Amino acid sequence: MAAAATGSIIPGGTAELQEDKLGPQTNAIEEIHQPGINDKSNNDAQRTVEQSGGLSAEQNQEAAIVEEVVEAKKKWYTYFTTRTFYLILLLGQIQALCLTSTNTFTSLLVIKGTSIPAFQTFFNYVLLNLIFTIYTIWKYGFKKWAGVVMKDGWKYFILAFVDVEGNYFFVLAYRYTNILSAQLINFWAIVIVVVLSFLLLHVKYHWSQLLGIVICVGGMGLLLGSDHIQGTNGGSALNPVKGDLFALLGATFYGLSNLTEEYLVSRRPVYEVLGQLAFWAMLINGVQAAIFDRETIRHAVWTPAIGGYLAGYTLSLALFYSLAPLLFRLASAAFFNISLLTGNFWGVVVGIRVFGLTIHWMYPIAFVLIMIGHFVYYLGKSVLGEARKPWLGRAQERGVDGVGTARRRERRLAGRRAREGLGLGQGQETV
Question: Angle at Cα 413 formed by Cα 203 and Cα 424, nearest 5°?
Fold first, then answer.
């Protein structure tokens, strides 16, 4: 989901909610150049304002309170004592189950003689458009929504393009290469996210996070290894080089899209991002389906069962898209990707009933290993985990005050500390 997190595709400005009035921004020059203040005092004051990043005194005070609280008595297990950690674990597995559902419905469609990879995703974008674009117009008014389309539309177009193409090329890869090869290459999406987060967004990864990713990938390797042992990796490939190149391209688009969506939803309202993504993706996907799926649509089998499978696929994917922004805000694109690695395990669990599959003894071990990797990933993290985004500023002032954002949680944390006069380390956030 989503597009490259570079300055060229980032909508301008912040979409801060009115409820988050942290105090007016003051002009540094006007504050420090007052009659009766000597030059040395002026210089010291100016350096202080510059070091604060242009924040108001109230914002700096709030940021200082939050930093004091979240760092107080910080231990290696601090984040594990919060409800947020278990919430993101749950969200990650719900996302993995959603993907498992879409894969299952796609397999059922193929079994029934209907393979329309581009066209079946079109309905997902239509549904998201009906929900989020309509809500955005209601929230903004048509004139303001049209202004977003005119000003930032080309940026969201790029976001939608990489999202659509990520889905398209990865589905296309399965036509030419086997499942094992395609899924191995999908690890490239994690590499893209980690490297670009470090280079473009200045995210500093702790050694435990990198170790956690390696452990999760090792668990996924066990899943794929058991598939190979059982001969369920898809067999021989029609054109492995071509298929692997398509998978590599699809994984690259996936990584870019995840990273950009994390950036955008940290700065803009979720309904705007998803609404614009769906609006442009519906147009792009519709044109692509008309070009590449025209013959398959014409020869597809259409029955009530096919309609049910398409409905199930659409609802599962729409839920996946709707929950992803919350996981991006509470955690990160990197954690989002390692959470999806359990999808193979859930796929076999579902397949026991649907396709008569059996669970190999390595599967439960692999699942536990991946979940252990999730815990290792957050060793030593504060009560806010990865919710604090380095690109949003010290007080997260460049971010939106929305559900799951560090800015909202920090405001409440600072307010609670100010009201109750809590001592150091007693104001831990648990939500």
Answer: 95
Name the maximum alpha-carbon separation found in the chain: 85
Sign of the alpha-carbon torsion through 196, 386, 190, 215: positive
Helix residue spans in 76-206 (DSSP H): 83-111, 117-128, 134-140, 142-173, 179-185, 188-200
Quick one: which H or E segment has residue 47?
A: helix 39-51
**Does residue 78 carry a pLDDT above 70?**
yes
Report d(CA 195, CA 187) in Å as an integer: 13
Question: For the packed helices 142-173 and 117-128, what is the interaxial angle rounded to 10 degrees?
Answer: 160
How far apart CA 37 and CA 60 sit, in angstroms, is: 23
Q: How do residues 112-143 score in pLDDT, each as one tens digit?
A: 878 787 888 899 999 999 999 999 999 999 99
Instruction: Fill in the amino acid letter for 222.
Output: L
Count of H helices and E strands in the chain?
18, 0
Closest alpha carbon to 323 in 251, 387, 274: 274
d(CA 163, CA 257) in angstroms, rounded, equals 6
Q: Which residues contact 361 (CB under 8 A, 6 or more apart)?
A: 226
CA-derived radius of gyration, the chain: 24
How many degrees, rounded to 5, is the angle at CA 2 between CA 117 and CA 385?
130
- For CA atoms 431, 429, 260, 97, give the dihedral sign: negative
From CA 117, how far away is CA 119, in angstroms rounded? 6
| Token code pair at residue 66 | 């939050």
Query: How far, in Å, are 174, 289, 290, 300 from residue 295 at the CA level?
Result: 19, 10, 9, 8
Neighbouring residues of 113: CB distance < 8 A, sequence distance ≥ 6: 300, 301
Residue 417 near residue 62 (C-beta atoms within 8 A) = no
What is the pTM assigned to this prediction?
0.80
Q: What is the pLDDT of residue 302?
A: 85
pLDDT in tens, 227-265: 667 666 555 567 777 878 888 898 899 999 999 999 999
